[in-house]
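Today's session is about reading a structure prediction critically. Students often jump straight to the picture, but the first step is always the sequence itself: look for stretches that repeat, for charged clusters, for runs of hydrophobic residues. Only then move on to the predicted structure, which in these notes is written as discrete structure tokens rather than atom positions. Here is the chain we will use throughout the hour.
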Amino acid sequence: MNNIQTNIILLNIFYLLMILFGIIFDLFSYPLFIIPLCALSLLLFGLYLLSALTRPSKDPLDFELFFNHLDCQVWIMQTPVDYLWANSAHANFYGKIPSAFQNARMDVLLDKHRCSIWFQGHQKAFESNHRQTHQVWIHNDRKQKRLLMVNRILFSSDKHRPLLLCSAIDITDRVVIEENLKFSEERLSLALEAVKDGLWDWNIETGWVYLSPRWYDILEYQMDEIVGQMDAINQLQHPKDSQMVQKILAEHLGGETEFYIAEYRCRTRNGNWKWILDRGRVVQWTNDGKPLRMIGTFSDITQKKQHERELQQAKIAAESANKAKSQFLANMSHEIRTPMNGIIGMLSLLLKSKLSDDQRDFSQTAKTSAISLLNVINDILDFSKIEAGKFDIECVRLSISRIVNDINNILKFQADQKKLSFTCEIHSSVPEVLFGDPGRLRQILINLIGNAIKFTNHKGTVSLTIDCLDQTEQSARLSFIISDTGIGIPDNYIPKLFDNFAQLDASTSRKFGGTGLGLSISKKLITMMEGTISVKSTVGKGTTFQCIIPLPKKAKEI
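Below is the predicted structure for this chain, in token form.
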């Protein structure tokens, strides 16, 4: 029992005595006598109570009730191993009651490991006679706890016996958070170092910006040469890029974009310009929803920009060379075609004159070769014009039946030589009068039907079917289907069938001839007419091409 509790009990006893005296004196009718007696007694007891409350306590455990309500551990040691007292938190930490620690030995209450850890701290505090602070790891409930321990020397009331006041706070969670934070910072630092990016952290409200060491390295500045303020950083931007950067930043701060991404030039310490890729995002807002904090990265992309410029220059050079090549081929093809027409004309006249059988065979072979050569030249000429962008589609009146009749006259002889069944069919739904480029439409059909005849074996069939899929007052959408029973096309070759100079294989070119430009030119012409072409084929059974081409019903440019 402490002094305060004792004084309270004595005061209560005194009040009871006063009441008892009052009753006795009242019974004997001594009212005047009790008043000074009570006053004197109260005065004496008050002086006693005042002296009891103000004199120093001889019991170091007067504040036991107060310490038992603290969450932190508190205990008092008489020696490095002898407890005097411990509060509830310290006792609960070891699963014991506080009374077990009163005047008890530490090596009896605790296991060897814990006893050793506490003993070292106690002994240092007793020896130094100064306040000691240190952290220790203690096992508790199969978990490791990190405790912050503070030891301080006190003296008993006689000032001869030193006591050690100890306290400990559980800082395990704080230590784990600090370690995780340190690990995250190290990982972020390593990641930024690996990609050689700088880091910036902008407080939008104050304008202060944290810049990582790598940020300064990129621009070749020392860390004390640039003030961490956004205004100072903006002054490093190229004048021609600054307005663009501020616009992109304003859009992000206004919530219009998810990320802030800008490429701009930035001045280095030596006055040179580096291309920078700046990326960031708002990560914190004020209570009223305004951007408060923004974090981002700062990357040097000067070398990348240089490569892009070189690639662009190479592309321009390649396009110019390709255009010059196409122009050259177009000119050469034109120059070659003119004399070829003269050769074919002269051979035709020669065949009409009186010739021996051998002379006629020679002349006919020369004419056939000249015509084949002219077809190759025409393909090259058309391809070169398309590549050079000098190929135009006409829009004049045409007749589908007349085009089909011309095709039949041109290809019927080739089909008859191979004893093929060649048929052409025009459905009644096809309008008689349409507008377009009859020459290019004829060229497309001759290329496709010519291939069908070329790749169809003797006594096979080749057919052309023309139908109107749908029509309006302005146009009609025609379907041209060319089918054959030829050698077919493998599935893996169909995707590259319309590539320039495409051939099924080397043996195909040697056996059937051709430049490999026919289908490529046909597809380009169909595309220029805003149409489509598709193919279905089975090896050994034949191939079907379908061209869908819209043709206007009135004269206009396509």
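Discussion point for the tutorial: The chain has a mean pLDDT of 80.
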